[in-house]
Amino acid sequence: MNFYSIRHLTRFRYAQPISExxxxxxxxxxxxxxxxxxxxxxxxxxxxRVFSYxxxxxxxxxxxDIPGEHNQLVIVAESVVEQQPxxxxxxxxxxxxxxxxxxxxxTGDYWEMLLPSTFAAETPALVQLAEKLNVVRRDDPLxxxxxxxxxxxxxxxxxxxxxxxxxxxxxxxxxxxxVCQDFTHTMIALLRHVRIPARYVSGYLYRGREDHDRSTxxxxxxxxxxxxxxxGWVGFDPTNNLIAHxxxxxxxxxxxxxxxxxxHGIFRGSTDSELYVAVHVEASHRPPAxxxxxxIPEDWSVLVEKAQQPPAAAVPFAExxxxxxxxx
Length: 328
What we know:
- The protein is of the alpha+beta class.
- It has 2 domains: 2-83 and 260-327, Immunoglobulin-like (Sandwich), CATH 2.60.40.2250; 97-258, C8orf32 fold.
- The protein contains 6 helices and 15 strands.
- It has helices at residues 97-107, 124-132, 141-155, 169-175, 180-193, 298-307; strands spanning 2-18, 20-25, 35-45, 51-54, 60-66, 70-83, 157-158, 177-178, 198-205, 221-228, 232-237, 242-243, 248-254, 263-268, 273-284.
- The strands form 4 sheets. It has a 5-stranded antiparallel β-sheet, with helices on one face. It has a 4-stranded antiparallel β-sheet with strand order 3-6-1-15, covered by helices on one side.
- A hairpin with a 5-residue loop joins strand 4 and strand 5 (60-66).
- Helix 3 (141-155) runs antiparallel to helix 5.
- The longest helix has 15 residues, at 141-155.
- It is globular, with a radius of gyration of 20 Å.
């Protein structure tokens, strides 16, 4: 059993005062059979009343409206998550697995995770990549997904900031490089190409000293969940060639990133906006409230201090309407 303390800071700074901000956040970790969110809090400055609801996919959504004039918006989400050991994912399924998957699809409501979506579309470049990687119905579904997880890890070079939050998958496919968002969207589109329901998972990946993940530890993370017969939704992380396990902390699921941005909002005014994001994940083998030896994350204080400093360059708000922790 593992416990994780997560601190997630987002700051918007405006070149000129604005008169209103309306914002949604999806930073509240999900609870399911293997993951349980013990505590969650969302602090907003300027102070305001925060409301919440659950969307149709079961994601926790917080939303608020700041009607007064302000030139900075700071959001701090803090949570504690308990992770139970997850069952091992086998290497293959039975010989009739494709038939079992089709029967599962026919009797369930998975159409949203089978159709093309905003960022996981079946483009000519995607079809060519499917041919190159031999993504066809062969072997069994699980073997194919395992292989695709490895092939995309090898195909793409992980390069932070090599794409934008709204970049189409064609850009990453053509350049052979991207961030976790690009790996995930490409894998989802390839799985849907062979009628395997696939969905986008937004969350956090804890990285300890012994881990050698390619994705950066100070940002949110993204990976894929594929529907498998007899197993249900199984997580795959093509950025790091991993099966999603206890280090993967899920906050939201959707068709693609457009459904689950950590922050999404608009403001009233005409000015440029600067965005700063910081994420810190701390691990413990006991609940933090009971663990007197849990270290205080000193580097978090440094991150908060950075949030008070002007970023290097201003970014037009049009590029920030779907906020891009995965690009960090």
